[in-house]
C-alpha cells in the first residue's frame, strides 16, 4: 500500500505556511513543496533537515522550471505531468486551516493533526474508486445533513485528489484557463461521466482571507478573474454562467461564475 503525500504549490511566503504545512507535518503526512527557484532557499531553510526548524524529514522541495510559474493552473499541470509513480495526486493550497464536523451533528471544531491525517488518508483512498475527490469549504458544511459523510458531486476546491490514470487516459488538462482550473477539471470529468467524492466531515478556510499577501493572490487581478470566468463559460456554456459578485474580504467586485454541477454530472452519467 502506497503512503499518501500532498503537493503544496506556494510562492513568496515561506514564513506564512506554518499553519498548513506545519499541521500536515504534525499529522505525519509527507509534503512536497512546489515553488520557484527564487523561493527554494527560503522554503528549504524552514522545512528541510538538517537546517530546518520544522519538517521532521517529511518535507521536500521541488523547483518549478522558469517557464512554469505563470499561474496556479500552469503549476498544477506541471504537478500532474511529473513522475507520479503512485498514480495518485493530492493538491492543497498553502493558506488553509481545517475544521472537522461531528459524525452525529453539524457541530464543528478545529481539526487536530489526527483529524488531518485521517482526512489525507481518505483522499488518498477515495481515488481508488473515484476519478477525483475533494474536501468541502467550511461554509458548505452547514448545508449538509449529518449523513451521508460523502457526497457524490458538488463544489470542492483548495484540497483536491486525482486518479492520474484517468487524467492521463482522457487527456484532462489543468491549464486551459488562467484561474478556476479546479472547476474546469471537475467539469471535464463530470461531462465524461466521472462523479467526484466530496468529503463532508472535514472543511477548510483560508488563514488570511482571499487577499493574504504572496501566494497566487498577486496575479489574480480583476482582469484575470474576468478572463478566467469567460474562459470557463466558453468551455462549458451549458453549465457555467458568468455573474458579478461582491463578498466580504474581496478588494473589488469581480466577474465570477455560477456552475450547474448537478446538471453537468447528470449529463455525463446519462448521455
In a few lines, what is going on in this structure?
With 271 residues, this protein is an alpha/beta fold. The chain contains nine helices and twelve strands. The chain has one domain (5-208): Spore Coat Polysaccharide Biosynthesis Protein SpsA, Chain A (Alpha-Beta Complex), CATH 3.90.550.
Reported for the largest beta sheet, the result is:
7 strands, mixed
Total domains: 1
The number of distinct β-strands equals 12
Strand content: 15-25%
Class from helix and strand fractions: alpha/beta
CATH H-level superfamily: Spore Coat Polysaccharide Biosynthesis Protein SpsA, Chain A
Which spans of ≥5 residues are poorly predicted at pLDDT below 50?
none
How many helices? The count is 9
Overall 3D form: globular
CATH topology: Spore Coat Polysaccharide Biosynthesis Protein SpsA, Chain A
- What is the alpha-carbon Rg in Å? 18 Å
Overall pLDDT score: 87
Measured distance between first and last alpha carbons: 36 Å
The amount of helix comes to 25-40%
CATH class: Alpha Beta
CATH architecture: Alpha-Beta Complex
H/E element order: EHEHEHEEEHEHEEHHEHEEH
Amino acid at each position: 500500500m502506497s503512503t499518501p503525500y500532498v503537493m503544496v504549490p506556494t510562492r513568496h511566503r515561506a514564513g506564512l505556511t506554518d499553519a498548513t504545512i506545519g499541521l500536515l507535518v504534525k499529522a505525519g503526512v509527507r509534503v512536497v513543496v512546489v515553488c520557484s527557484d527564487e523561493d527554494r532557499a527560503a522554503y528549504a531553510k524552514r522545512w528541510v533537515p538538517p537546517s530546518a526548524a520544522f519538517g521532521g524529514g517529511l518535507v521536500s522541495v521541488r523547483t518549478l522550471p522558469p517557464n512554469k510559474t505563470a499561474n496556479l493552473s500552469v503549476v498544477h499541470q506541471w504537478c500532474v505531468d511529473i513522475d507520479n509513480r503512485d498514480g495518485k495526486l493530492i493538491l492543497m493550497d498553502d493558506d488553509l486551516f481545517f475544521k472537522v464536523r461531528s459524525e452525529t451533528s453539524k457541530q464543528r471544531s478545529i481539526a487536530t493533526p489526527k483529524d488531518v491525517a485521517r482526512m489525507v488518508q481518505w483522499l488518498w483512498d477515495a481515488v481508488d474508486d473515484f476519478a477525483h475527490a475533494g474536501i468541502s469549504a467550511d461554509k458548505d458544511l452547514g448545508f449538509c445533513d449529518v449523513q451521508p459523510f460523502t457526497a457524490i458531486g458538488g463544489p470542492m476546491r483548495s484540497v483536491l485528489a486525482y486518479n492520474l490514470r484517468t487524467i492521463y487516459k482522457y487527456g484532462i488538462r489543468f491549464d486551459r484557463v488562467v484561474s478556476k482550473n479546479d472547476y474546469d477539471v471537475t467539469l471535464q470529468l463530470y461531462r465524461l461521466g466521472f462523479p467526484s467524492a466530496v468529503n463532508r466531515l472535514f472543511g477548510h478556510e483560508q488563514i488570511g482571507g482571499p487577499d493574504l499577501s504572496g501566494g497566487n493572490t498577486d496575479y489574480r487581478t480583476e482582469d484575470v478573474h474576468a478572463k478566467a470566468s469567460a474562459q470557463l463559460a466558453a468551455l462549458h456554456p451549458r453549465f457555467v454562467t458568468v455573474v458579478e459578485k461582491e463578498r466580504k474580504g474581496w478588494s473589488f467586485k469581480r466577474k465570477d461564475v455560477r456552475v450547474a454541477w448537478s446538471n453537468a454530472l447528470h449529463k455525463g452519467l446519462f448521455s
